[in-house]
TrEMBL record:
This is DUF2835 family protein. It comes from the Bacteria.
Length: 73
């Protein structure tokens, strides 16, 4: 299992574009410097009135499939 931590800050307007399906993926840079592509649909539950803001941890299995995406408190 691989773990990646990253910060994400998207405005409400940017989230709307993703939510409406204009984009399918987000590319984030982990704190380790690695770039990761994640399906935008995994972030829908984190959308707030002002967008998405926070530090997240992504867990992937050995094949690179998502196990868990959590927002750290």
């Amino acid at each position: 299992m691989k773990l990646y931590r990253f910060s994400l800050h998207l405005s409400a307007d940017e989230c709307l574009s993703y939510y409406q399906g204009h984009y399918r993926n987000l590319i984030v840079t982990a704190h380790s410097g690695e770039r990761i592509q994640i399906a935008a649909r995994h972030f829908h539950r984190f959308i707030q009135k002002d967008g998405i803001h926070g530090v997240f941890t992504l867990s992937l299995d050995a094949d690179g499939k998502l196990i868990q995406l959590i927002k750290n408190s």
